[in-house]
Design a protein that fits this description.
The complex is a heterodimer of chains A (184) and B (183). Chain A has helices spanning 5-28, 73-89, 104-113, 127-131, 160-166, 168-174, and strands spanning 44-45, 52-53, 62-68, 93-100, 120-123, 139-143, 149-154. Chain A has 184 residues and is α/β, with parallel strands linked by helices. In chain A, helix 2 (73-89) crosses helix 5 (160-166). Chain B is mainly alpha-helical and 183 residues long. The chains are: A alpha/beta (184), B mainly alpha (183).
Amino acid sequence: MVLNLKTSIVAVAVVAFIAFLAWGLVNSGDGGIADGEPVPTATLPTLPPGGEGSLEDYRGEWVLLNVWASWCIPCREESPALDRFERENRDRVTVLGIDTRDLTDDALAFLEEYRITYDQLRDASGEYADDLETTGVPESFLVDPDGNLVAHFPGPFRDLAEVEEFAAPALASAGPAGGGATGS
Amino acid sequence: MKVPTRVRAVLGAVLVVAVTVAAPAASSGENAPAAATAAQATGSTGSQAVAPRANLPDLEDEVMCPICGTLLGLSRAPAAERQRVFMRRLIAEGKTGQQIKDALVAEYGPQVLALPDDEDTNFWVYVVPPAGLIIAALAVLWAAIRWRRNRDPGDSQGPDRGSAGPSGADSSRLDRDLADYDL
């Protein structure tokens, strides 16, 4: 069978279009950072304002990175459990909040309302949340002392037990409370 | 009873003076509830109402919702509602549209603006689309001219496929069909 030029061009265009769609489908996948990969870092302003900080500052410690926003209802729901986890395990795991795409005053009011005292960084534009490949808020990342991802938790923690289960590798590795942060 | 002309003149003058004095007072009384409502909406407790220098619907078309990727005016997301509250407060404080946009940039970063600024690479944002349109228009014009040339029987350039017409069996069948419809 001999195809003329016009038919060939149309066929190539159709094949290219289908290949493009397939490529998009394959690459959309789960997205996100794979376990064991380095977690992106960025220097961000602190919350309350006045300084700067980065995940990199916590190298050598286990970090539970929690991305949140004051307008996010599930973030409100998980806050008590997260705060309690932090108070009970601060010697073994550092909880670091990333407030994203939020108003400063709203975020400060949120921290005051829930009496959250752990470190917070402010990702005003949401670029860092994009770097982390989050799909919404809240999302949490367990980062080992070398800065690599150990576990990812999209969505809110329902209770303290769920936070502890998520952070189990850190709790197991760092030993009993009071032992301080350890390298891996 | 007949009222003397002089008394009627005095009463008329009193009436005119009363109306003149009462009108502005009534007018300011009409504005008072509006000002109170505005202060209530913004949570302002101050007694001095500031005249707004921007309005929310206009600004909603010039800034983005921080999480939706759409204009603020198209979003009802919780984050967008908080952004609106923030903007209403600044409007009530008498801030201009530009001051409000600057405040939004300070809060959310430059991505919050629906239109890019005039600096650096954003220059190309304004140049590339019109240039693309002009190139596309020229391409269409060129194709149209070329098509007309190919259809023109007097054109000596290239094969004249447009003027060949049917021949042989097709021509006779065409004549038969036309004759069938000849009323």
